[in-house]
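Thread: Modeling a multi-component assembly for a lab meeting

Hi all, long-time lurker, first post. My supervisor asked me to bring a structural picture of a complex we are working on to next week's group meeting, and I have zero experience with this. I have the sequence lines for every component (226 residues in total). Could someone generate the structure of the whole assembly? Inputs are pasted exactly as I received them:
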Amino acid sequence: QQQVKQSPQSLIVQKGGISIINCAYENTAFDYFPWYQQFPGKGPALLIAIRPDVSEKKEGRFTISFNKSAKQFSLHIMDSQPGDSATYFCAASRSGGNEKLTFGTGTRLTIIP
Amino acid sequence: GAVVSQHPSRVICKSGTSVKIECRSLDFQATTMFWYRQFPKKSLMLMATSNEGSKATYEQGVEKDKFLINHASLTLSTLTVTSAHPEDSSFYICSGERYNEQFFGPGTRLTVL
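Re: Modeling a multi-component assembly
Sure thing. I ran the full set together rather than chain by chain. Output:
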């Protein structure tokens, strides 16, 4: 009930291409869905987040698509660049203070020239 | 805004000693802070949730007597690994909550010899 399933485990995309990472959740009480980017040896950085009142949110090259009925959400990185090479984690939680995040297993993204 | 720091960034200690890791929210007040542990190429594992002025809430399987958490102010939480052993070697990351979003510190690499 608390799991967040993330795929793929690893992804290689050519520079300029679109990177797509998918997540699925089970707990219908979740209503906050952030994506984090982590570089080796560093802490995760909040990239973009969505709440279920919208189906899509875009910030620069990063877009979250959200499908409430399917309990799925995805991250799209447009015009992928070598600097985007990192590990990406989706997460989910309930709103309100003091709520813990349930993380996906992570996707290692590599952008090749 | 929403910057979280950790100190130290790396620590090496001998088996049996105690190590204290500090987590500070630099530009916001964090009523709630979270402590995570991350193994190589793995996702983040929540260890405990700490609230300013009260006892931490530990996740199942986390030894509260081994991982002492103190959240003495709205900008500082500490994690003390007592009587550290090699199996405690890991990457420890904290986060502070602001407006129901979590912002992560850069992590502390603990190596126990």
